[in-house]
C-alpha cells in the first residue's frame, strides 16, 4: 500500500533545517521541481532528504513552518524517530545561533542516556 503522510512542524528557518539534516548525516537534494510520489498522489516539495534503499522524505514550506511529506510505507526509517531527531537538532542549532548572537559560548556540552543535551554557557567579554 502506498500513502503520503504530511506532518506540520513549526520549523521556520530553512538554513537551520538544512544544516540540521546535514549534521544528522542525510543527503539533501535542493533541485527544482521536486516531488514525493505514491501510486495515487503527488506532492510538490522544496527539498528532499535522500534515504538509501528507500523513497525520499520531502520538506515543503508553509506559513506556519515546514511540512514533512513522505510515504512511510516505502521508507526504511521510523517516522517518529526521524521527526524527533530533526526537531532536536534544529532546536539545538537554533539555540546555539541565538545564544551566539547574545554573546554566549558553550563551555561544556553533554548528552545523557535519554539523548537529552545539557549545555553550560559562558558569556564572552565584550571589548
Automatic annotation (TrEMBL):
Highest taxon listed in the record's lineage: Bacteria
Which InterPro entries does UniProt cross-reference here? Uncharacterised_Ycf35 (IPR009666)
Pfam families attached to this UniProt entry:
DUF1257
Protein name from the UniProt record: DUF1257 domain-containing protein
Highest lineage ranks of the organism? Answer: Bacteria, Bacillati, Chloroflexota, Anaerolineae, Anaerolineales
